[in-house]
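Extended Data, panel c. Modelled sequence:
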Amino acid sequence: MPIRIGTAERISTFFSQGLALKTVLARNPGLAPADILDTPQASMQNAKRLHAGELEFGFMAANWIGRAKAGEPPFTEAIDLRMAAPMNAGPLFFIARTDSGLRSTDDLRGKRIAFGLRTSGMAQHAAVILSALGMAVKDVEPHYLDFAAGAQALAAGAIDAQLQCPIPNKVMTELSERIDVRVLPYAPGQLDTLLGAVPYYRRTVMRAGALRGLTADVAQPAVVNVLATHARVDEVLAHGVVAAVIAHAAELERLNPLFAGLDDLIRDLASGGRAQFEFGGVALHPGALRAYREARLL
């Protein structure tokens, strides 16, 4: 039976990461072949499919993990997930046209902002970030558009800013080639406040040149994306997959730049102990825990 791994839609970053993961797993003869499945609703759908036993592993953003565990909306029941491995920390950033008056996140109040689809993780992130900045959703004009539609609206001048994640992503690359854009920096102290308030965010730096128009390094929050599983997955299988991720983190980065810094991310989390891997209070799968211990990370 193949190892079924849920990702997101086929043009997504999760799907492309899944293909790289499949390549690495295929080099471990003790593992069955991986079947990379597209799941249009990404994290939310992967959690439900894990619960139903339709997947062995699923890509999820860490902000969905605790909601799924607790059965909080949009979930209608508690979902018994287990943690496997971090996949990357993707920067969340607001962009605006360079010919707009927006210079930093301080300027977002009252502006038209593309949040992402209403039920998406991006819309959650937008609300969380605005709250940390001392604003509520009602203090801006939200536009619930997916990445591509939001980018089109920004190019047309129909909105003032868009929340994007991560880099590289095809929509952001193409948008920055079409129009001049600015990544909005945080005002002094704001990013520290946000990171202190939200445990599934981490500090990252978007490097100059990462996209056209980004001419200087800029600090941003990053959401940790993870590979989740469930308790019914065999311990030997969970151990084999996580051990492969640990051993081949550098190769994953070579295969797909979205995995950049994966080895550092794993070691940084491990330095804080087991709980740092257990986003939203979701426990590590016993097989995953054994893999980290054998690698002398925990």
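The chain has two domains: 3-89+224-294, 91-223. This feature is highlighted in the accompanying rendering.
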